[in-house]
Structures are given as structure tokens and as C-alpha cells.
Amino acid sequence: MNCNSIFLFILFFFSINCINDYSLNDNFQEESTFCTTWSSAIYATREKNLPPIKFTNNSIRQIVHISASGEKVRVKFTNKFGESNLEILSANIADSVSQGSGEIDLDTLTPLTFEGKESVIIPPGAEMYSDTFSYNLKALSEVAISLYFGSMPIQLTGHSHSQTCSFLEEGNKINIQKFSRDIRVTHWYVLSTVEVSSNPRKNAVICFGDSITDGHGSTNDIQGRWTDYFSEKLHSNPETSDVGVANKGIRGEKVTTDGLNRYDYDVLSIKGATYIIVLFGVNDINSLNATFDQVITAYKKLIKKAHRNNILIYGATILPYGRNSPWTEEREQIRQQVNNWIRNTKPEDGGYDSFIDFDKVMKDPNEEKNLLIEYDSGDGIHPNSVGYKNMASAFDDLSLFTREPNFNVYDYLDKIEIIDKEGIKFKLDFNLEANEEVTIKINGTTNGSLGFRILAANNEGVKTSNYYYSGKISEGGFEYVVKLSIINTSNYIVIRRPISTINIDNIKLNFVEVEKGNNKILFSPGEEGILF
Predict the structure, then answer these.
(1) Measured between alpha carbons, how far is 248 from 309 in angstroms, rounded to an integer?
(2) What is the reported pLDDT for 392?
(3) Higher-confidence residue: 366 or 30?
(4) C-alpha to C-alpha distance for 362 and 214, rounded to whole angstroms
(5) Per DSSP, what are the bridge partners of residue 38?
(6) What is the distance between the alpha carbons of residues 41 and 445, in angstroms, rounded to a whole number?
(7) pTM attached to this predicted model
(8) CA distances from 57 to 39, 90, 137, 170, 173 (A)
(9) Cα separation of 291 and 335, whole Å?
């Protein structure tokens, strides 16, 4: 890198630090103080996973494992896939006394209310938060959420294969200390998310994947998924002890189909989401015979959407599964190709922001296509709880979860050949020289919030000014004035789309005015002024 480039690099990073704090971090609006501390992926419950007794006029106690602590809490319930009303007659939360027991600490019993009322009706397709309540929610603890139901839809919404027992009782028993173990299921029903209020804002990691993220093969009731051990590791580090973890794994899913379909709801909409870990692809390779290109194309779509929502996204390498019957040499080659792409593709080339190398810590060193036998649950593909615990050893750099999302760093390029695809540039009829300042006025309209980047360039496409990020502009008409400090001779003004943008929709430039001293030039882009 030459001296001019170094100087440009310093100015570029200085300009990033001067960006308004609200410009990119507004993927949460008025509820920005809430952060997810527990959540599961939800879907329509199949008939075989329904409880052995009907829920109407009966009670359930469900246990969840908390990641980040909090003193102001709310719980979200869901009827997303129901065809009729879901009625909760009463609900409460309490500390769980011991794993798998169904017993609570009565001293911590706290009723839940809904707009001040004890009961709530959740319409079909809807979700509902409890009122925010005071509670000493401890990191890495288990809490029990007990519900007494009225009318219920036939189609329940929930998460099967919870690896955690839920307990059912006939009648309204939610205030008793211990539920019987006579009626138990390893499913969660109508329970979606637990959030804590935080100021300043806490961050959450969303773990997005298939059955391995879901914890298939782990021992029930010990909270032995890799996401649980990862949460413990985060909590043991002072700099990440307050980071929440949400498990969004679903068994049997493929990133090329299911993952893409549920990504917006299950990942991008999660309160506090700052980081995503993607462990997906083995089912695509095994069940769909997906090609390398198909898997990578899906990854790139996840990455692009994460960046547009100002979320850092980390890829996890696919675990070995040579002792699982669908394995073939051809599929193994694709797995290796995918893993190499995850490890070696830089963010500026469309790759993940970093990677977690599960393959490295889980493979048998003597037979790298296989899970180490001590970590194998018995089917050759899913780890046991010992294996899931070892997966946490792949997190050797917890600073990944202290990073602030700022994708403008990818704008630092030696060349700007992609300008014609991602923005527009204007040829000046006068030169801008080093140490001069130029004023640029941008006038346009948008149907959604936006931010874009302005810079100067020379004939070779080399950036020749500081970079300027316009900040957040509301829907409607806008006029924005920026000043660029010129570093080297320039004859182009470049306006680029950002890598991270919220609600991109038809950004149009009416005119761009460039002024240097007595020199002024007005550009009217016309139809070409439509950036996105």
C-alpha cells in the first residue's frame, strides 16, 4: 500500500468514527432497549407432537435456559400458525429448582399480565407480549413459565424436540410448587421468546441452523446443546458476559429452501440481533444433492440481508458425517468445498464476516470424514452432549462478539469498478486538486429509509477523497449537503449504495450539484438517477 493509500485509509476510518450513531443501528425502533435472552424457532406442531391431554382448561409448565441477565423482562407468546383464537387465562414465571423436575421456587413466582389484565386472547396468526415486569433474571439459569389455557386452536404453534421436559397438569395448577412428572413432553408450545430490557443496548447472537443447532443427540434437561455451552463461554468472559444467545435451529432443514424462507422472521426480526452464526448445509448436500454453487448462493443471500440490517454474520463449517448412511465421496467433496469457501472467502468478496471452525474441532484426526467417536451420538452425524460441549472450543476468539457492525469498511477498495452496478458517477468538467474542498448537494426521493456514500475518484477509478456517509434519511423527499476533502486530483463524483441499508425501496436522485469556489455544475440524472 503506497503512502497516499495509507493516508486515505486513515481518513476513511476517521470518517467512519464521525458517522452518527443512529445511522445504521436502527434495525430496532422504539423498542430498542429490549434484547433476546432466550428464543426458539417456531413452526406448526405436527399431530404426533401434540400433548397427550388437551390444553383447554389445563396447565403447562415449560422450562427455558436463560443466556443474558436482566431485571426488566417480557415474554412473547405466539399463535402464528393457529386457525382460531388462543386464550391464556393466567400465566406466571418462576425460577426452576432443579433440571427436569417441574419444581419452582415459590419465592420467585411472578404473575404475567397483558395490558394490565390476567388473561389474553391471541388471534390466529398473531403474537402477543406480556407486560414488562421486574424480575431478577439470572444469566445461565433455568426459569419455568406456567400457563393455564382457555380455548385453543387445533393447530398449535411451538417447537418440537426441545430437549427439555415440559410438564402438564389438569385444571389450573400454575401456582403449585411442583408439577407431576406423570404427563411430560419434550416440546415447547405457544412460547416464543424471553427478552430483557437494557440501557445501553445489549447484543444477541442468533444461532441459525438445522438439527445440530437444535441440539438433536444431546441429553434431555441438561441444556447440552452447543448453543448452551457457547453461552456459558460468552458469560465467562467479562467483555461478552452480557451477550444473549438465541437458538434458531430446526431439524431436517436446508439452507437453500427452509433457511431462506424463515430467515427474516426467525433471525432478522429478533430484538438485539447483532451477530448471526450460520451452521447450515449438510441436509442440502445429503437430502437435496445440492451443488456447491447452490449452497454458496444461499449463504450469500443470508450475508447480504444480514449486512443490510447491520448485523455481523459468521459462517460455521459443516461437521464431518462419514459414518452416516447418506454419505458418499461426492458429497464429501462438496462439504470440503463449502468449508473451504467459508474459511477463505473474505467479506469484501461476498463471504462471511468471519468463521467458526466446527469441522476442525469435531473431526477424527485419523479419519477426517468422520466425527470423533467420543463426540458421536450414534448416528454418525449428530454430536452427543460431550460433542456439543466440545463445539464451544471452536470459539477461540470471543472478540468476534464485541465487534460493532460497520460495513462501510468494505467500501475501502483500491478500485471502484463496481460503481456502475451499485450507484452512479458524474464526470466533472473541472479538476479537483489535493487539499481542496468540494461541496455536493444531493436532492431526491425515496419510499424507504436510506443511507448512501459519496466520494471523489480519478480516471482510473481510484478513490481520491475522504468518504462521506449520508446518515439516515426518512421516507419522502430529501436534500443532503456534504463536503469532501480532496486528497489527489479528481474528476469524478461517485454516489454509491451502502452495503448496509434498511428498507431499500426506489431511491431516486432528482439532481446533484457540485460546487468548488466559483465553479458549479448541476447534474440531472433523469431515469438513470434511480439508484435502487
Answers:
(1) 18
(2) 98
(3) 366
(4) 17
(5) 194
(6) 38
(7) 0.75
(8) 26, 11, 29, 7, 10
(9) 10
